[in-house]
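Entry 14: structure prediction run for Type VI secretion system lipoprotein TssJ. Input pasted below.
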Amino acid sequence: MTRISRRLLGATWTLAVLAWLAGCSALSPYSHMTKLDLTLNATDQLNLDINGRPSPVVVRLFELKHPVAFENTDFFSLYQSPKESLSADLVASEEHELLPGQTLSLKLSIDPESRFVGILAAYRDLDQAQWRRVQAIRIGERVTANLYLDQAGIHNGVPPVAQAGERP
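Run finished. Output tokens:
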């Protein structure tokens, strides 16, 4: 075998192995899973008590087939009996505690039946806080969501930066 033939055979073999490896990753079940990279940023003014002191909140995440029941059900029904309140729309749920000033980064694998994630935060003053939010999911894709929680509720994006001497 000549030197050129060996190099050609080596290059062909290398390309074949690379193509095979690329095919394996494309066929991997993990490459088609739906993911949610959710970051929850709590400000220092989270869930103020009657004396103006920040307090933790319980955050519940609900994987949903449809968001309508979640959007139209009162807080206490969702918090105390989510399975009954969300009935056939609830796929899965989990709970976290978020402290003032804390950042919680979650990398979630979403169930194939889920199309939305409902976020509920147990604020002390429910009437004055936006205590729920819905995040749409794109099937088979990785979705990134950055939310921040302050005294007024759950917001999309990152917390605004306070000027010197100001409270956010």
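Notes: The beta strands are 34-42, 57-64, 90-98, 103-110, 116-121, 132-136, 142-150, 153-156. Will compare against the previous run tomorrow.
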